[in-house]
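User: I've been trying to design a sequence by hand for this structure and keep getting stuck. Would you show me what you'd pick, starting by listing the structure so we're on the same page?

Assistant: Good idea, let's start from the same input. This is the structure you sent:
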């Protein structure tokens, strides 16, 4: 599942260096949906309400959000979100990278990472 999620065509999100963070869910059928970033400071954080998630709950494999200005490292809030939802894969998408995080043996781990082809 990790390799399949990593291999999704994240380039198609078209993450630019401008603007607010974007966010959404990764579904078990290996597609993503984009949801509304409900953070009060969306330029540098993201929030997704339970109401937005509930229609997808049974199909949920992970959560993604963007870091438009990079890096793909976890913020403190991101780290805590990974720990709070250890059953999910957490993807951070920058204009140049996708990086997956999860919890293994109680520890937040960088599961995998790849560069995005931004030449198009
Ligand atoms: Zn973040």
């Amino acid at each position: 599942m990790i390799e399949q999620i990593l291999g999704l065509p994240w380039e198609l999100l078209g993450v630019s260096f401008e603007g607010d963070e974007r966010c959404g869910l990764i579904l078990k059928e290996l597609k993503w949906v984009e949801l509304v970033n409900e953070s009060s400071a969306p330029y540098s954080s993201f929030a997704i309400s339970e109401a937005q998630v509930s229609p997808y709950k049974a199909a949920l494999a992970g959560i993604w959000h963007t870091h438009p200005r990079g890096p793909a490292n976890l913020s403190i809030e991101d780290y805590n979100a990974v720990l709070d939802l250890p059953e999910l894969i957490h993807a951070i998408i920058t204009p140049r990278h996708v990086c997956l995080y999860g919890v293994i043996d109680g520890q937040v781990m960088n599961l995998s990472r790849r560069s995005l082809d931004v030449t198009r």
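That's my pick for every position. To get oriented when you compare it with your attempt: The chain has three helices and six strands. Residues 2-115 form a domain with the Cytidine Deaminase; domain 2 fold (CATH 3.40.140.10).
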